Every structure is written in structure tokens, then in C-alpha cells.
Amino acid sequence: MAYYRPPGPPPDPVLVKSLTQQQHDMRQRVRHEPLAHEPRLIAGCDSSFPTPDTILSVFVVLKFPSLELVEKVYNYGPVDMPYMPGFLSFREAPNVIHTFAKLQNKPDIIMVDGHGIAHPRRMGIAAHLGVLLDMPTFGVAKQKLTGAFEEPGITRGSITELLDTKSGEVIGEVIRSKDKVLPLFVSPGHRCDQATATRLTLACLRGYKLPEPTRLADHWAEEFKKEVR
DNA sequence: GCGACAG
DNA sequence: ATCTTGTCGC
């Protein structure tokens, strides 16, 4: 009997070591603090893949707290880096940065589809982008990457903490954004704290599992994808 | 050695 | 992420 083996070529240990070092370095630049002022504009960021080697990223900007859509932009290009758990940002961040540059309306904070510091080295894509853009960011993920948590109540608004299994430190919060649907994993990225990330996530809920910034970015990523291929 | 593993 | 049909529950 053959044992189970994950698909795809094995990761290059030399590359993994380099990327890991880069994350440790970037981690030193991450800051957690409350926002200087209440946001007027909040952005949503997400990426999709029209083809296996093409990435298309989207940024939507909404007024806050009305959540009225004021702008949406996208950019796409080739992707070289393969997907590796824990190193997602090296695959997606380059194109996301180019997309951000196209925005006419710069947001006060960015909600990213993915994790903030709820990452093995506290450098999820939200934190990674925050450092590169020097912008307040936080992550809203649909699946856990690392950590342990207690299942939050089944009603909308229930929250529990996501803890690092090793140190016990709080690395995020698990939020039930809608009655009886799988919870979201919210964590601060850069220039943002947990309280702010959680508060804004809840303030952006409109009856769907995903908060508006991320939900709309996801929606437009699908629409733009049709135009491109 | 055995699981877990964002998008 | 992406490929995909029908199906269960509110």
C-alpha cells in the first residue's frame, strides 16, 4: 500500500529558508496600534487566478461607515512562485502592490482576504502588505492557518480567541459573522490592533458571511476574471 | 514519527 | 485558489 503524498513538486529547502528569513526580518517592522482616527474610507483586497500562472488582484474602496462603493480597480500578470502554506504573500503581494498603485482614492485602512499575524511567524499576507505599503491593514480569513481556538457560539457576533499553541499568546479572534455558518478568523496586520480589526469587521457585516470589503473584492475579482480570459 | 497546512 | 451537480435547510 502506497502512503498519502501531497500533489505538486517538493519545495526547494534553500528557497524556503530564504523566505523564512525575509519574514523574520519584516516581522521586526510590524506595529500594532489603534487607528489615529475613525476611517472615512476602507478598502477590500482579494486575488483570483484566471489561469494557473496568471494572478488577478482587486481593490475596492468603500465609504465608512455607509459602505458605499466609491472605486474598484484590478491588475493582473504572470505568477512564478507556487503556493506554499505560510508563504502565500510572496506569490500574491507583488501583483497586489501594483493594483494598489492604481487607486485614485487611498483608503484609511485595508481589509485583506487572508491572515494578519495569525501566522506561524506572525507575517500573514495582511501584515506583509501593511509593511510594504506602510498602511494600516488587518486580515479576514475563511480558514485557519495556525493556532487553536474554542468554537464560538452559533449566533452572529459570537467571538472566541485564536491562540498560539506554543506561547498561548492571542494571535487573532474567531468570529461568527452569520448564524450557523463557519466562523471567520480576524487578526491585525500592520498599524492596527485586534480591537480595531474586530470592530471594523463587525461594522462591515451586511447579512453575508463575509464583510463587505472582502465580499465585494471577491465578487469583482470574479467579474474582472471574465473580461481577461 | 505524525498531523496541519491562508489563498 | 480552481474544477464542478445536485441538494439540504432556512
TrEMBL record:
Q: Which GO terms describe its biological process?
A: DNA repair
Pfam families, per this entry?
Answer: Endonuclease_5
Residue sites binding Mg(2+) per the record: D46, D113
Q: Where is the signal peptide?
A: none
Q: What is its main location?
A: cytoplasm
Mind listing the GO molecular function terms for this protein? Answer: deoxyribonuclease V activity; magnesium ion binding; RNA endonuclease activity producing 5'-phosphomonoesters, hydrolytic mechanism; single-stranded RNA binding
Entries under InterPro entries matching the protein: Endonuclease-V
Question: Which reaction equations make up its catalytic activity?
Answer: Endonucleolytic cleavage at apurinic or apyrimidinic sites to products with a 5'-phosphate
Swiss-Prot/TrEMBL cofactor(s): Mg(2+)
Family of this protein:
Belongs to the endonuclease V family.
Role description: DNA repair enzyme involved in the repair of deaminated bases. Selectively cleaves double-stranded DNA at the second phosphodiester bond 3' to a deoxyinosine leaving behind the intact lesion on the nicked DNA.
This chain belongs to the protein called: Endonuclease V
Organism, scientific name: Hymenobacter properus
Which gene is this protein's source? Answer: nfi
